[in-house]
Amino acid sequence: MPLAPLLTGLAVALVASMVMAVGIGPVAIPFGEVWRTLLAELAGDGAGGPRAVIVTQIRFPRVLLAAVVGAGLAVSGVAVQALVRNPLADPYILGVSAGAAFGAIAVIVLGGAFGSLSIPVAAFAGALLTFLVVFLLARRGGRLSPLRLILVGVAMAALLNAATNFVVISSPDNAQLRSALFWLLGGVAGARFSWLVAPTLALVCVSGYLLAHARTLNCLSLGDETATTLGVDVDRFRRALVALVALLVGCVVAVSGAIGFVALMLPHAGRLLVGPNHRRLVPVAGLLGAVFLVWVDVGARMLIRPAELPIGVVTAALGAPFFLWLLGRREARA
Amino acid sequence: MRLEVEGVCWSAAGREILRNVSFTAEPGRFVGLIGPNGSGKTTLLRCVYRAQRPSAGRVLLGGRDVWAVPAREVARSMAVVLQEASCEPGYSAWEVVQMGRTPHKRLTERLDGDDDALVAAALAEVRAAGLADREFTTLSGGEKQRVLLARCLAQQPQVLVLDEPTNHLDIRFQLEALDVVGGLGVTVVAALHDLNLAAAYCDEIVVLNHGRVAAAGPPAELLSPDLVARVYGVEAEVAVHPSTGRPTVTYVPGRREGAGSAGLTV
After folding, report:
1. Which of A63, A203, A215, B175 has its CA 20 to 30 A from that of B189?
2. Cβ within 8 Å of residue A127, ≥6 positions away
3. Between chains, do A277 and B95 touch, taking CB under 8 Å as contact?
4. Is B53 in the A-facing interface, judged by CB distances under 8 Å?
């Protein structure tokens, strides 16, 4: 399938999904009204009123955040799978999300010394600190081996998860427990426009870098040695990729919690559509991830309304069967 | 382009794999690297194509130390076929050959019609044009080897490094592959198992044994029953091929010498 019509189709689907998703909720708002309200707001003459507030202040930032988070996770999944040459990897194996979770939970539960930090800032700091430790421990002899990266990341994640669970379980306050649990499972509820800035910037920068280096990413698919003989400075490229992925995932996780499976699943959905060539895969996976998470979030707020499901519950419920199917498919091929 | 290996040493876990290896491949010459398993051929080639840095000594490509210039610049003049071919599933043979154009392209530069023509010509050269749309991982060992050779041709190298390029190939494709490589007029350094192929195609042979250069020279002067016995521990007869004038090696079964086969000669 040619790339341009596919990308156009996905972009149209994304805009349509977002407008529809803004209309769906406990208070149903017709799509025409959503569209008019958004255009009026853009033009600067918003009419106001409670329905306009629901559209512009509550649902629209939430839907936008779902799209950015979905795209960010899918794109970082593509990058991580290329950089460790393992199609069953996702960015969480770098331990970044466990670090973010620990940072956020520390603020929610412990408060005190951490209380002055906002949750996203603490989560981002936790993510980057963890990434630094993983990066330093995974280096050996000046080289970054994919296997060590996975092993160190998994070990650090286990350690941080233990610490997070300890903090959560020893909290005396039930309300804190609920908000901690909600954060751990992830979600885009309560999104504000100000939360969009950092993840959007990171998404644009990292996607641009990956697209510019699509050929280099393809060369990595032939193995480190062959990539070297094709002129790729494999170690330097891998270091840059790891740092960029940590930055993007840190920004995303900081505002949405640890949403599982998107980063693992969507790259594969992209490969099923357009194959492994990164020039096509990066934009396609990103758009698919955005559309996917917009609809998953609709499910999260509609399935048990008026209550909300954490988005991580919905993605995992869809993701786990997909993962098992993928695994079976790989074994059947091997 | 000249390739010089100067006093290269390499050791792993305290074991010396290469000890002071030196040889020169003059421009346009076909140099064969032979020697028993574990003699250090692959390790030496890895030092040459910049996958591992020698612990001592230098590799000079066109007079410049390969470790002193960026990987991309080395890749513009040197192409490599590795022994083990791995590739993520999903890439077509055409896409794999296209990757040979990587070192010639700037980051955001798109492949153009000239690149496509080079890729098509490279595939045709190894008689693999029909494989272009096939998924690389579904190809047979021999087909993969030809596609990888095509990738090297698309890279337009001045030095070609091959590690066991005729592995997996049937006899016709072995000859065809070496004909193609030899006909390019570029400098070739190839690790070869088959002494007869080495004798037939190489201008010069370097014999490695226990990580050292045991002998080096043109095949006709170099290959002798004595050398084969000394390096491989195998009895062989060396004759001159009546039509090519090249040496041929015939092995005498059942009579081996050396520690490795002591049990068989009791």
Report:
1. A215
2. A96, A97, A99, A100, A103, A246, A249, A250, A253, A254
3. yes
4. no
Of B49, B70, B85, the CB nearest to A229: B49
E strand or H helix at B187: strand B187-191
What are the distances in angstroms from CA A127 to CA A96, A103, A245, B220?
5, 8, 11, 65
- Give residue limits of the domains in chain B: 3-222, 225-266
Pairing of strands B56-61, B187-191: unpaired
Contact A247, A79 (CB under 8 A): no
CB pairs under 8 A between A and B: 81
Distance, CA of A284 to CA of A4 (rounded, Å)? 10
Distance, in Å, from the CA atom of A328 to the CA atom of B227, rounded to the nearest integer, reads 53
Which residue on chain B is closest to A216 by alpha carbon?
B102
Question: Is the Cβ pair A222, B74 closer than 8 Å?
Answer: no
Query: pLDDT by residue (tens digit) across A62-112?
Result: 999 999 999 999 999 999 999 888 888 888 888 888 898 888 888 888 775
Domain boundaries, chain A: 3-333
- B chain contacts of residue A331, beta-carbon cutoff 8 Å: none
How do residues B56-83 score in pLDDT, each as one tens digit? Answer: 999 999 999 999 999 999 999 999 999 8
Judged by DSSP in three states, B21 sits in strand
Q: B170 to chain A, minimum CA–CA distance in Å?
A: 24
Are residues B90 and A271, on separate chains, in Cβ contact within 8 Å?
yes
What's the CA gap between A249 and A264, in Å, rounded? 13
A55 by Cβ neighbours in 10 Å (0-12 / 13-18 / 19+) ranks as buried
Chain A residues in contact with B157 (beta carbon < 8 A): none
Average pLDDT, chain A: 87
Q: Rounded to whole angstroms, how far apart are CA atoms B243 and A288?
A: 64
The Cα A88–Cα A68 span in angstroms is 23
Q: Chain B partners of A218 at a C-beta cutoff of 8 Å? A: 91, 95, 99
Residue B262 has pLDDT above 50, yes or no: no
Cβ atoms of residues B57 and B82 within 8 Å: no
Please check whether residue B72 touches A, CB under 8 A.
Answer: yes
Domain A3-333 CATH superfamily? ABC transporter involved in vitamin B12 uptake, BtuC (1.10.3470.10)
**pLDDT in the model for residue A42:** 81
Has residue A210 got a pLDDT over 70?
yes
Å between B14 CA and nearest CA of chain A: 16
Say whether B103 and A231 touch across the interface (CB within 8 A): yes
Assess B41–A contact: CB distance below 8 Å, yes or no: no
B262 secondary structure, DSSP code: G
Closest CA to B227 of B185, B186, B198, B262: B198
Domain B3-222 listed as CATH 3.30.230.10: no
Helix axes A278-302, A60-83, angle to 10 degrees: 140
**Using a CB-CB distance cutoff of 8 angstroms, which residues of chain A are in contact with residue B107?**
212-213, 215
Cα(B230)–Cα(B39) distance, integer angstroms: 13
Which residues partner with B64 through β-bridges? B61
